[in-house]
Amino acid sequence: MYEIRVEADFAAAHFLADYHGKCERLHGHNYRVLAHARGAELDSGGMLLDFGVLKKALRDVCGALDHTNLNDLPVFANNPSAERIAEYVFRELSRALPGAPLFAVDVYETPTSRARYSPNAV
Questions:
Q1: Domain that includes residue 106, residue range
Q2: Residue 2 and residue 37: Cα distance in Å, rounded?
Q3: How high does pLDDT run on average in the chain?
Q4: Does residue 68 fall inside a structural domain?
Q5: DSSP three-state, residue 104
Q6: Cα gap 37→102, rounded to integer Å
Q7: Cα–Cα distance between 70 and 59 in angstroms, integer?
Q8: 72-82: string of b/e by CB count within 10 Å (b at 16+)?
Q9: Rounded to the nearest 5°, which phi and psi values hold at 118?
Q10: Per-residue pLDDT tens over the stretch 17-28
Q11: What distance in Å separates the CA atoms of residue 81 and residue 65, rounded to the nearest whole number?
Q12: Is residue 4 part of a domain?
């Protein structure tokens, strides 16, 4: 099994409407996003997926979120948690790279707090 990973980042504001605590107030994060692809087969060039292709797609998705208030995006239903952001990024990458062996997306709100979305995880 082969796995590759690329990283991108973005800065954004958000608040969690259905949360009771400090995160219900508007605040921001410098998000770090990791996209993972996994598969058993390599292409004729010996690659699972070109790093540059995956990195560009991830940067494009993150770029659309950069310097926004995530609550303004209907997809997050006013609760843009790290979990929902990870799922959103995964789905957008899947649309940008149909057929790519995407496995998971990690979203770090801080260096020690991460959420992962992986539709095929067991």
A1: 1-29+101-122
A2: 8
A3: 94
A4: no
A5: strand
A6: 4
A7: 17
A8: ebeebeeebbb
A9: -145, 105
A10: 888 888 788 999
A11: 13
A12: yes
